[in-house]
Amino acid sequence: MEVFKMSEALVKAEKEKRENFTKDKPNMHVIGAASGVAAAFGLVTVFAVVLYKKKSKMMPRSKSGTSSWLPLYGNSHTSGTKSTTMGGSSVASAQLSTEAAANCRHFTLAEIRKATKNFDESNVIGVGGFGKVYKGVIDGSFKVAIKKSNPSSEQGVNEFVTEIEMLSKLRHKHLVSLIGYCVENGEMALVYDFMSHGTLREHLYKGNKINLTWKQRLEMLIGAAKGLHYLHTGAKYTIIHRDVKTTNILLDENWVAKISDFGLSKTGPETNQNHVSTVVKGSFGYLDPEYFRRQQLTEKSDVYSFGVVLFEVLCARPALNPSLPKDQVSLADWARSSVRKGNVDEIIDSHIKGTIKPECLKKFIDTAFKCLSDQGTDRPSMSDLLWNLEFALQLQETGDAPKTASTTAARNNNTANDTINMHLNTLNLNDDDHNDNDNDYSTTPSNDQNSSTAIFSQIVHQTGR
Q: Which residues of the chain have pLDDT under 70?
């Protein structure tokens, strides 16, 4: 009996053991599956890390973001990746359009070497983002400037092609003329008209070869503004320079200012848009803050940069000077702060201080200050900017004869009329093209339109873009 009870107890215990095993079996499956997933994830992670390290070793290291924005004059910088000159000759040739190639002279490398005496260092007249610029002679006695690419420079094939594509189709008194190019054996070179007086900056503070008078400075600024005005409104399509600065304003033998360096230029927006979305490029210190923040490029970005140039010419100091106190490092910030505080006299170049007519200075300061507005919509157009500079020059040239109420009014009317006529000639708006508008606007101010700026603004907007 006891044996039977023990057997029965053993059978019962075995039965309970089997039932417990059956209940735990699903949990064991779950645990096993989770372990498998974890192991697979670990293997994938290890593989990804190994692959990433291999790619990092294969890819060249880029320069830090800080170094790419150093305020180095003569260089243009970009927040994007730089184009390379590796295999530049074949790539550049492939990218050039047939029209651009036909409009420019193609030089052989032997001709370029001969013109520069085999790139003799004594012929170097400048260094830019693309490379060194050499003085040269072609066709026996014709002086040229030859810009040769540097494989390690921050500009490469893209800028080379852009320069040719842009300048081969543009001809204007205030734009540097491109004569031709060379693409051979990995070497790239651009050949321009020689500008004997160098850059505008050289005559302001670096080297300070000649102390320019205020009138000379105004005339040079007006010439540069005419070149930019042509790019914005006079060409077949809008062109935004994107790198306006004093090193890109060159002076010929007659001291005529010309815009140069179109490697970063961009065609303007389509008719149904008001900006071009693009990676930020340009020179720090001259860069439009709105463009920098939003990566939306407009003609007003050039206006901002030119506003910095205006103050640079007035103050004869760089756009950026890290050696100065913090509040004076940026010329744009310092100038705007000085204007707000009424301390403009303290920032004027000592060589011209006291030679600027008060009316002229006021007009010039107002114009430059508006160019540096944070919002592009608050800045003047290049047309209005050009008009204001020409009007400032007229005010500077006005005689110092005693003024009466009647003579002052008459002089203002005559000045406005003369300046408007001069500017219409600049824009090539001849009478034959605008006979239909002869009765719409008068060059004599009316009671409602006694501002010469308002008059010119209406004329320009009537036929502008």
A: 1-94, 152-155, 207-209, 271-272, 399-465
pLDDT per residue over 241-277, tens digit each? 999 999 999 999 999 999 999 888 888 877 667 788 8
Give, in order, the Cα–Cα distances in Å from 317 to each of 77, 122, 392.
21, 28, 22
Sheet containing 142-148: order of strands:
105-106, 178-184, 187-193, 142-148, 132-138, 124-127
225 Rama sector, left if φ>0, alpha if ψ -120 to 50, beta otherwise: alpha
Spatial distance between the Cα atoms of 217 and 200, rounded to a whole number of angstroms? 9
Cα separation, 445 vs 409, in Å, equals: 11
Third-level CATH fold of 67-193:
Phosphorylase Kinase; domain 1 (3.30.200)
Q: Tell me: domain 201-398, CATH 1.10.510.10, correct?
A: yes
> Which token pair is 83?
């184009």
d(CA 237, CA 64): 36
How many Å apart are CA 335 and CA 13, to the nearest integer?
96
Q: What are 150's two structure tokens?
A: 């540097």
**CA angle (426, 431, 435) in 5-degree steps:** 140
Whole-number Cα distances in Å, 427 to 225, 382, 440 = 12, 12, 19
Tokens of 255: 């001291």
User: DSSP letter at 85?
Assistant: -
Is residue 243 annotated as a catalytic residue, yes or no? yes
Report domain extents, the chain. 67-193, 201-398
**pTM surpassing 0.85?**
no
- Three-state DSSP class for residue 67: helix
**Choice among 24, 139, 193, 243 that is catalytic:** 243
Domains 67-193 and 201-398 share a fold: no
Question: In angstroms, rounded to a whole number, what is the distance separating the alpha carbons of residues 2 and 19?
Answer: 26
Query: Nearest 5°: phi and psi at 196?
Result: -65, -25
